[in-house]
């Protein structure tokens, strides 16, 4: 299997507080002109926007652990964003230009993420981590009210930049120490 699926019980145990904090973060982004937090992923990093949330700090620690278990050495960057979507606005087919991609299910509603070669049942607390160049989409299994809330992230390697890496317009990428 090319991907790994983790379950982080901490998210389940603190889901309502995490949702509350992400709602505040989403509203703050909208107030600053970021109306679609998914499409604007290069303009912010949700772990920065949500500071000083200890819940988001713990989630970031877990993501860092997952990524560094797979890639223990070398410089890495991570960009992460909030997917805060209504039933009719979930993501269609797309892929990621980074080598590795993941997402964290906070309030995934009744959805699956369908890849060309596999399907992930989205459950609260799941953290998916796999290759970034795999086409995928979100599929609603039934109608729901409220928001589907996940956090997407891409891991960026030095080789993803040009031979002479200079600062880019990707304001959402931060070092993964």
Strand order of the largest sheet: 1-6-3-8-2-9
Architecture per CATH nomenclature, i.e. the level-2 architecture: Sandwich
In the CATH hierarchy, the third-tier topology is known as: Jelly Rolls
Q: At the fourth CATH level, what is the homologous superfamily?
A: Jelly Rolls
Residue share in helix: 10-25%
Percent in strands: 25-35%
Give, in order, the helices and strands. Answer: EHHHHEEEEEEEE
Gyration radius over CA: 15 Å
Cα-to-Cα separation, first versus last residue: 27 Å
How confident overall, as mean pLDDT?
94
State the domain count: 1
The main β sheet shows up as: 6 strands, antiparallel
What is the molecular shape? globular
**Strand segment tally:** 9
Number of helices: 4
Low-confidence stretches: none
Summarize the structure.
This protein is α+β, with helices and mostly antiparallel strands and 177 residues long.
Task: Provide structural commentary.
This protein has 177 residues and is of the alpha+beta class. It has a single domain (4-159, 171-175), classed as Jelly Rolls. It has 4 helices and 9 strands, in the order E-H-H-H-H-E-E-E-E-E-E-E-E. It has helices spanning 9-13, 15-31, 46-49, 54-70, and strands spanning 4-7, 76-85, 100-107, 111-115, 119-121, 126-131, 136-140, 148-157, 173-175. A 6-stranded antiparallel β-sheet has the order 1-6-3-8-2-9. Strands 5-4-7 form a 3-stranded antiparallel β-sheet, with no helix packed on it. The two termini are 27 Å apart. 34% of the residues are buried.
């Amino acid at each position: 299997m090319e991907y790994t699926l983790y379950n982080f019980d901490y998210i389940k145990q603190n889901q309502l507080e995490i949702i509350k904090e992400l709602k505040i973060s989403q509203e703050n982004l909208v107030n600053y002109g970021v109306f679609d937090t998914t499409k604007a992923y290069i303009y912010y990093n949700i772990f920065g926007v949500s500071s000083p949330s200890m819940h988001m700090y713990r989630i970031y620690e877990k993501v860092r652990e997952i990524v560094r278990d797979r890639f223990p050495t070398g410089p890495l960057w991570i960009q992460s964003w909030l997917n805060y979507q209504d039933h009719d606005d979930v993501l269609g087919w797309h892929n990621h230009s980074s080598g590795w991609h993941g997402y964290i299910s906070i309030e995934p509603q009744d959805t699956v993420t369908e890849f060309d070669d596999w399907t992930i049942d989205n459950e609260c607390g799941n953290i998916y981590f796999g290759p970034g160049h795999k086409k995928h989409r979100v599929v609603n299994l039934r109608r729901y009210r409220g928001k589907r809330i996940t956090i997407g992230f891409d891991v960026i390697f030095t080789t993803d930049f040009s031979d002479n890496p200079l600062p880019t317009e990707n304001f959402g990428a931060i070092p993964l120490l």
